[in-house]
Amino acid sequence: MQIFTRKIMAAGRTYQLRISQSDQHSHYVDHLYEIFKDFVRMVPRRVVRLSFSGSTPKGRWVLSTLGHHSLQFYGRRFYKKSVKCVPKDISRFLTARGLAVYG
């Protein structure tokens, strides 16, 4: 699973959420789309690329939010100097549902 933020340098510092999942997890991308649909312009889309060996096409579903200041808190919490990290106070963010989805 790949979920990450990206800094957008337009009108100040803000963050964008980018989600990328294999074909077998497309339902999860649809679920996240329903949560973030007020922050996206386009529905999830399928991208096909060749595997590392170059012989097999691999499909992925991707979704990107617009850059928004409300994502800044999470971007700063879970990324330090552009490297993913687990915050020391992670228990503040965990719920039973979150553990079921991400665990």
What are its keywords?
single chain; 103 residues; alpha+beta; Endonuclease I-creI; 4-stranded antiparallel sheet; two-stranded antiparallel sheet; 6 strands; 37% strand; globular; Putative LAGLIDADG endonuclease
Task: Kindly describe this structure.
- The protein has helices at 26-36, 72-78, 96-102, and strands at 2-10, 12-22, 45-50, 57-64, 79-80, 83-84.
- With 103 residues, it is of the alpha+beta class.
- Strands 1-2-4-3 form a four-stranded antiparallel β-sheet, with helices on one face.
- The N and C termini lie close together (12 Å).
- The model has no long low-confidence stretch (mean pLDDT 82).
- Pfam families: LAGLIDADG_2.
- It comes from Ostreobium quekettii.
